[in-house]
Request: fold
Amino acid sequence: MNDGPDSVRFSVVIPVHDRRERLEACLASLSRDGFDGTAEVLVLCDGGPASMREAQPAWTGPWPLRWIDLSRAGPAAVRNHAARIARGEIFLFLNDDVVCEPGLLAAHDAAHRRRPGHAVMGNTRWHPDVVTTDFMHWCAHHYHVHYLIDDPDNITWEYLHTLNASIDRCWFDQGHLYDESFPDPAFEDTEHAYRLAQAGMRIAFAPGALVHHHHYFEPAHYVAKSVMRGRSARRFLERWPELTARILDEYRVAISRAGRGLLGRTLLGLPDGPAQWYARIGLAFLAGYEGRPLPWLAKACRGTPERLTPGAAASAPAGTGPGPTAPAGR
Reply:
């Protein structure tokens, strides 16, 4: 544990790439948190454009902020770098596209004081500004599914995503770093959570530690993201094959329920509803997992067909998208 004279209670870790406007909103909300303990903020720019690196966003918060420029390394390497240089007793990982409610740090702190040495998952809701379409209304109901939690003092590893999660630094000091071999920004935090849970770490849910996720998706973007998630799921399940059914079955069920009618709707140009959205997401996830193209699925999402080819780099914006019953893999 870092208990030296320069230690602080929290190191808030925010990886960024190119979403400057969202980062500015995140930092502005964090500056109003009101936490009366000690903290630092680490903003790590993961190979962003020159405009992002050269003009750092304003910071008016009460704690020191360090801006750290890195070459494009990916979220796992960025968080590992932060863990090596951070001064905090607890690492609070945030997405750059969240808006924090006041009291976020205090709620994480209270949960850690009740059970020191473990991890806490904060509460996430979609930002109301992005819930403006039928698809986003569906996402708001089916994702960030904290209403499924029965015992907030003992939640499963699937829920622990770095969008709003705090982990005691002792686990990093013991060498439990993020796996940097994942091909895309997905499942690396899920794998880390599962590995730490296997090592004895417990996870609590802090409903008062609230952020609003300001990330808008269209169906085509989320299908593209699902291909990327499928690729990373393959890496995850190569390491932990005992979880194969747990990760893949929910998508297989969704595809089965949609049935052959999904292809027919695509060919006829009929609009999708929730069952079709989830089936397309499942098909895209499995396509990425199996490394195979789905040309007719690309046709259904005109405008981004190249993003639906598993071998291509998925350029859909990053966000968190757990499944409705097994929230794994962001």
Summary: Residues 1 and 36 are 21 Å apart (CA to CA). Residues 219-239 form the longest helix (21 residues). The beta strands are 8-16, 39-46, 65-70, 88-94, 98-100, 119-126, 164-168, 203-213.
